[in-house]
Amino acid sequence: SPGFLASATTRGILFMALASASISIMHTGVRYVSADVHPFEVAFLRNVFTLVFTLPLMIQAGRSAWRSKAPKLQFGRSVIGVVSTLMWFYALANLPLAESTSLSFTTGIFLTIGAALFLGEKVGLRRWSAVLIGFIGTLIVLRPGFHDIGLGAIGAIGASALWAMSLLIMKVLGRKDGTVTIVFYSSLYLTLLSFPAALYVWTWPSLETLGVIVFMSACATASHLALTTAFKLADATAVMPIDFTRLIWVSILAYVLFAEVPEPAAWIGGTIIFASALYITYRESRVSPQAETTE
Hints:
By secondary structure, this protein is mostly helical. 78% of the residues lie in helices and 0% in strands.
């Protein structure tokens, strides 16, 4: 009903659902095309097309959008972002999708550690306990001693840690630049920085692969814009639970496209990691009710 949709929180939740579905499709696309081209090349082409998709938004936003108030911060975030993206795309190509998605939930845990170390935020016993529980969930997913922890798993965890660092910088950037400016310059720098790695492993993609990458890039752009809108409309505590639907989406898509059946450990560990990250978000909102969400 119109009244139901009038609530900013409801619209925020719907935008978060859109973001989660879009990013799940994009991640599945990475796995799909990695049979044809190297993940590093996929990352580069994704960045190129995302840049193309954001250009019209920049033109519409006007001249002021082209001037970043924090160019050094933009570039620094992009350097971290390109390493994170390359590691993450490698993980998507080499791990079961449910496992990589479960490990990606550790971002919220690394965010807490980073905020304490780099931003000087005070983290109480409850949140540190949640961090510890989150890492127990990570061990359940990885099962060290029961099977080898490969480069894919290391890539997923490393990417999550770096993405958390990127989000911390985003907190500062969000106070200086608009959403479109951030997305555009992030895409621009990521394109330039990921080019050398792509060139090293370059093979010409087929038309089908190129089409999938274009679609993935559209999903990535939609996800980034929907995510930013969701956090502007509603509190993190309201929208973050919806992020768990990523595990449901990728499990369905992985089964349909690749006949992948998620192992129970991925679901159990993923649920524990997500629950701990969700509790951290809840505690942050209680401890600092005046804190503004910028991402």
